[in-house]
Amino acid sequence: MTGDYLNLTFSHKGFTKLDHIDTDAAVVLLEVFMNKKKYLGNSFVKYDATYIRNDGQKGKYEIATEKVIVLLFMDRNGRVFTDVRPFTGDKLKYYSRSKGRYFKVNFPDL
Q: For residue 27, what is the DSSP state?
């Protein structure tokens, strides 16, 4: 792995899907899927969008667009996680070209 990482920035640090993921090291993008929000299962959305707020309560990130891109990542220990991103044609091309590349996981300053 080189230090030439792409960036994967999350809106919240406390996403529960990342509880067992090693975010201190880069993660690899395994696959990219396009879907419609209405076809995502409730269990998947709950898994992907739940985070712990600063007050310790659970919050749910709302998927804002009808079309979405589902990204499948793997950390250096072989554990996988997803990330749902709003669809745009440019984003789909970017992520599709980035399969197999490493991403540094970033969180907002708290």
A: E
Backbone CA torsion sign across 79, 110, 51, 54: positive
pTM of the model: 0.90
- State the residue for tokens 């529960």: 16
List, for residues 65-101, the tens digit of each pLDDT value. 999 999 999 999 999 999 999 999 999 999 999 999 9
Q: What beta strand segments (E) does 12-97 contain?
A: 27-36, 50-52, 58-60, 67-74, 80-86
Contact criterion met (CB below 8 Å) for 73 and 8: yes
> For the segment 31-50, what is each residue's pLDDT rounded down to a tens digit?
999 999 999 999 999 999 99
Return d(Cα 95, Cα 20) in angstroms, integer.
Answer: 24
Rounded to an integer, what distance in angstroms lies between the CA atom of residue 15 and that of residue 33? 21
The residues, any chain, with a CB within 8 Å of residue 24's CB and separated by 6 or more, are: none
The whole-angstrom separation of Cα 47 and Cα 33 is: 17
